[in-house]
Model the fold of this input.
Amino acid sequence: MSKRFDTPQDAEDAFYDAFEAKDLETMARVWAKSDEITCIHPMSPVLQGREAVLQSWRQIFSSPAKLTFLVHHKQWIETEDLALHVVEQTITEEGQDRQPVPPMAATNVYRHSPQGWRMVLHHVSPPPPPVQVGPNPMHS
Amino acid sequence: MSKRFDTPQDAEDAFYDAFEAKDLETMARVWAKSDEITCIHPMSPVLQGREAVLQSWRQIFSSPAKLTFLVHHKQWIETEDLALHVVEQTITEEGQDRQPVPPMAATNVYRHSPQGWRMVLHHVSPPPPPVQVGPNPMHS
Done:
């Protein structure tokens, strides 16, 4: 029997655990069984639908890098059917001496379904450059 | 009397109109009257609360650039109290001969309140580089 996520946070915990463990089966269970799901990796095009989204995780999990995550909530809005968590996720790579990548902002959205809470959006931005020059909508 | 946004799309239309017109007053009305609002401009740190968010728009609007937007919906989930729109926004700058910037992915979230629908999150990612090398959670 597959585990049910009774809260948005249960789904989020499973998401980051699956990411660390490179567990594609759990990752597939975290995402809603719908083609109305969207995943935006840093500097990557918008991916939509289960096939494209899960294919991207298969590709990420094929890397030998051993990643660990630190997740810090920045915004938290939960309603009966939809939940928005904005987080800063800090990724560190085991065995790497280089400076850790600065935290990246991620928007995670979960939707309630008869199968419990499932992820419908994961949108990650690359971290800002070290020297900040103020917001620029063209950033070019 | 300030205009009420009866649907999430009304608020979104006003958001992009205000962005094009550099209309800070309308922009301030689009955002929820709450400190639980978040704005993530491309390559910029996470901004939270009305003061920081509106200050960033004041700074963006102070640029002489005349921008126009083309907005294409990619994902659309609306519930009674919370609405998620993922869009691709293409910005062009008047009088510029250079190649237009490729579309940027934006997540816009709206929340229902006694004052109508208001924006609670605007999260924009920079466009992917011209040559795509596949999703990479470290992107470094």
About this structure: Chain B touches chain A through 52 residues (CB under 8 Å). Chain B has a mean pLDDT of 91. The longest strand of chain B covers residues 67-78.
